[in-house]
Amino acid sequence: MPKLVLYTxxxxxxxxxxxxxxKALGLELERKTINILAGDNLTPEFLxxxxxxxxxxxxxxxxxxxxxxxxxxxxxxKYGKTDALYPSEIVQQARVNxxxxxxxxVLFARLRFITELVFxxxxxxxxxxxxxxxxxxxxxxxxxxxxxxxxxxxxTVADFSCISTVASTVGFISLDKSEFPRTNAWMERxxxxxxxxxSNGIGATELGQFVxxxxxxxxxxxx
Length: 223
Ligand SMILES: N[C@@H](CCC(=O)N[C@@H](CS)C(=O)NCC(=O)O)C(=O)O
Known about the structure:
Helix content is 58%, strand content 8%. It is an alpha+beta fold. It folds into 2 domains: 4-79, Glutaredoxin (3-Layer(aba) Sandwich), CATH 3.40.30.10; 90-221, Glutathione S-transferase Yfyf (Class Pi), Chain A, domain 2, CATH 1.20.1050. It has a 4-stranded mixed sheet with strand order 2-1-3-4. Helix 1 (13-25) runs parallel beside helix 3 and helix 4 (90-120) runs antiparallel to helix 5 (128-144). The termini are far apart. The relative contact order is 0.14. Glutathione binds at residues 12-14, 36, 41, 53-56, 67-69, 104.
């Protein structure tokens, strides 16, 4: 078994995406918890690992990788017994890459535009245009979900990436079943994974609740 160290926290969607991937591959991770709100990611030691000061960061016996999408692909290519989670076939791989970039550039970016305001700028409410941007992202996901999974009929790392963010956002911006039936069905499918709750469900729920709690606290401290 390789010695894989992951700098991570359950609250972070990209960290959870990597944790889902590791579980799917049967890999054990040594988790080192990084508390971003306490500034653990800004220490000189951490900045040496990742000057971009983001988590997750993987340390695979001295090989350091500091980006969830890159880490997931690395783990599948290096340790996967098959290429199912990140297909080698060029067209299938392009579909997975497309969904990974959608997660990074749209789904996660729009969540982060909110969490930064709530946790760091301490805003008492989420501006309506940022909520609307998330709803538009839900719509884009719904309209592109024409198969069982986000990049086709098989589950891939793109599903881990997208579910980590969407399951977090729904904690404070609802994803109505009648308006987004395909997305809700896909989420239910992902929840069937035996390791889903441990690797993603608990942390996603925690993040949603934490956003709501922090908004209430920001409101109180404004008064
Ligand atoms: N595209 C990156 C995004 C990573 C990211 O922004 N992580 C957040 C936590 S969810 C973080 O580390 N923020 C701290 C910072 O930017 O200083 C990935 O997927 O790894």
